[in-house]
């Protein structure tokens, strides 16, 4: 069972029409709804389960610039500004706070890589530094085995994943957006390359503009429209602990350790490098597309084969829009956590930090990360289908960048000059011969 997410009661009536319909109630969908509603559009957000039910509530809660792919620099810089300005947009408590985030470096090549990253980030207005010795120990507090150096970004921070998307959704509703939960979208009706309506399990909504922010589901949804999105699912396990006293206040990444302090007094704990690819037919279809990413990070990816492979075969055929869809069969993706990774992380955590000796895991969960071949999101219009904007494939980086992505989506939907260059995020990069490569980890 996943984490407890702040509830967002559903509106009751399904509108007959809308200026824009958003598919998906995670951090991307709710942020898009907020900024589109602020621009005066009649917005309807549709979520098959509950707001923030999947990866938006299951991530680490980091809001980071540190170690970002350079293609995301401008977007994350603006996203940080939007996190700080949430209150001005009527958003309630998201738990956002600046704590700093530290990426440990235990090898010379890592230090060199971080120094190059610091220089590149500075050109985009992101302040960070490589720290060593006493400065590292000041961040790591009572760590008995601190790394010799690392990347430090003091303006980075965190928010509470179980609060953020719901708080943003409620703010969007206050500005006029309709939020419908337990209302799956079965597909789109189109004519002559344009959207005519969105078909839900509770009826149709007439619209010419749609935002697809469906996370791990986006690949299948687009397939039914004849659009190919090379995106795979990666399973990641996270846990929360009992309250702690002492230890680092910053977010820490150090090989098997990924931690941050939570607003409830405990820690969010994850293995910093462990992700599982539960094989599906798409892993075979896109094997060549993802080969560079796998080769670059092969030691941190485990493969598994099980029932999901056959379940996705069963769900693959396109259904008529008047029939029950796969989105109604699975309201919330809730995979089983991989406790072997957590055991290793907790053992290392207690070995290194005396202040965490009595810490215990209270709850563990897993979620599916939506990954692209270059580990960079798609935030893009779709060639050949006017009015559709896709925002997906955030590759484990989506929570922190979410408000920025939502603003960019609003720019694309309204035809406003984008506040950052969207070229790197175009869907067509996977089919126009560009062959983009990954430059960061999941």
Automatic annotation (TrEMBL):
Pfam families assigned: DAO
Key words, A-Z: Oxidoreductase
GO terms, molecular function: D-amino-acid dehydrogenase activity
InterPro entries the record matches: FAD-dep_OxRdtase, FAD/NAD-bd_sf
Keyword Oxidoreductase: yes
GO cellular component, one term: cytoplasm
Membrane-spanning parts: none
Ranges in coiled-coil conformation: none
GO biological process: D-alanine catabolic process
Listed Gene3D superfamilies: FAD/NAD(P)-binding domain
FAD dependent oxidoreductase domain residues: 19-412
Family membership: Belongs to the DadA oxidoreductase family.
PANTHER family from the UniProt entry: D-AMINO ACID DEHYDROGENASE (PTHR13847:SF280), SARCOSINE DEHYDROGENASE-RELATED (PTHR13847)
This protein's name: FAD dependent oxidoreductase domain-containing protein
Native source organism of the sequence: uncultured Pleomorphomonas sp
Native organism taxonomy: Bacteria, Pseudomonadati, Pseudomonadota, Alphaproteobacteria, Hyphomicrobiales
